[in-house]
Protein: Peroxidase
Organism: Batillaria attramentaria
Amino acid sequence: MEFVRSIPAEPLDPNDPTEQRQQLNVITSFIDASNVYGSSAEEEEELREANGLGFLLKFERSRQGALLPSTEREICITRPRGSSSAQAGESPCFLAGDERCNEQPQLATIHTIFLRLHNKIAQKMAAAIEPGSVENFNETVFQSTRRVVGAIVQNIMYGEWLPIALGQSTVDELGLSVEERSQYDPQIDPSILTEFSTAAYRFGHSLIPRRLPAVSSRGSRTSLRLRYQFLRPEVVRSRFNDLALGLVLANRSQDQAQAVDSSVSREVTRHLFEPRRRRGFDLVSFNIQRGRDHGIPPYNDLRQSCGLRRITSFDDPVLGNNGDRLRELYACIVGEQMYRLKFGDRFFFTHDEDDIRFTDVQLSELHKVTAAVVMCVAVPSIDSVQQDAFLEVDPSSNPLVSCEQVRKEFLNPADFVVEAEAER
Ligand code: HEM
């Protein structure tokens, strides 16, 4: 299997021969919606509409509604569903803030949802501003919207996803709850720990299901075999609505994410990016080799630095199934990283910094924007969604709510306008 080493970063001190090799990041470390806006001013420029519509992100009109724009810079694959004998072709990839959006259609669907969220908020904000009442109209609307979308992503990550992944008590112990106001700490290093990206957060690979949930053209549940979907934006171009509905339905059926454990689907251990009539790659081998490439310390050393006991046997129960959430070493590394990404981020949405703070009223509006709300607002074909979109529907603890109602109650973008300073 071909393996390419990560690009090494310049040493901080070229005269220090003992300095360890580090790797370069491609995207920002912060949870700042860089997957929507890119990680540099140039990327943002490329993703934005030009001229009079510069407050919007570029999008492609289609029968499925607004989709991500295409780029000819990268070539993706077209291959009819489930067929290994059919001709493999080429089609342009999607362009988004993170190039990995093309990796599999569910990811591209989520990228599309956030593109639509930006444009929906920006359009409403633009319509609410009196012509001539603000300077740099496009920049004001674009950046004010970006600030709201960034806060929504943080609210979902810290308010909904982390309590599931780490458990509410760990979230509370680390001060990661979004319910209270917080303070920026300039002493905290917000860069990504290689132990986080190269090892711990790859726990997500054990959740990957064999089939991606979707809805058929007749409205019944169906699913797409994952091995045939890699690098295929065509699937989203023709079936965005089916996939978006599948995301919501996934938690209402048996097509849920798999457990947090050491078993990984063959779709990615044998068939990752599988070309026609050839063998695919093995994601777990990539992970192990990437760990060596980046010099990840031995498991027991990391346990020790997290204050956990060293283990002496492969039969130790901590190596078994984690069940439904991260524990022990995984919880330690993910918790530490999320702590740094909150308190080391000057712009974190709950921070009480004078020049960036959301008002109490704005904050309480943002708290209401959950993943379920985003789904309803961005996908008109969804009628209802469970309150907590990450969890299974349950009539008493996690009931379905009507999207019509959710859309009516969605925050008023006009309340979030902040005058931009920069010329555009
Ligand atoms: C079908 C779904 C997925 C596929 C096909 C996939 C595939 C990949 C691939 C090919 C890599 C690069 C491996 C390397 O060369 O080192 C990677 C990295 C990674 N994946 Fe996934 N992945 C999936 C889902 C997930 C999920 C659900 C999570 C977490 C919740 C996740 C977390 C990560 C992380 C943290 C990295 C390292 C990124 C970095 O170092 O910048 N992945 N994945």
